[in-house]
Design brief:
The protein has helices at 9-16, 20-29, 49-58, 64-68, and strands at 6-7, 38-39, 45-48. With 72 residues, it is mainly α. It has one domain: Orthogonal Bundle (Arc Repressor Mutant, subunit A). Strands 1-3-2 form a three-stranded antiparallel β-sheet. Strand 2 (38-39) and strand 3 form a beta hairpin. Helix 1 (9-16) crosses helix 2.
Length: 72
């Protein structure tokens, strides 16, 4: 069994190079940065590293042409 790594919003924001506020807004609105999260019984939020990796892979752009043509 593979051990899952869980990240805080601060760690996740640093990895994605976004603000913690952007993550919080995405959690509350369901729009924007669409990464599943876990709310612990203490109220703390955690993101699985595997979900962060999947989000990054899904939003990877090979070149500017892909981005400009809307192929993502």
């Amino acid at each position: 069994m593979t051990k899952q790594i869980y990240r805080t919003p601060e760690e996740t924001a640093k990895i994605l190079r976004v603000s913690v506020k952007s993550l919080a807004n995405s959690r509350s609105t369901g729009k924007g940065i669409d990464i599943p999260f876990v709310r612990l019984n203490t109220g703390a939020i955690r993101y699985r590293q595997s979900d962060i990796n999947a989000y990054m892979k899904a939003h990877f752009i090979n070149n500017s042409k892909e981005f400009n043509n809307g192929n993502i």
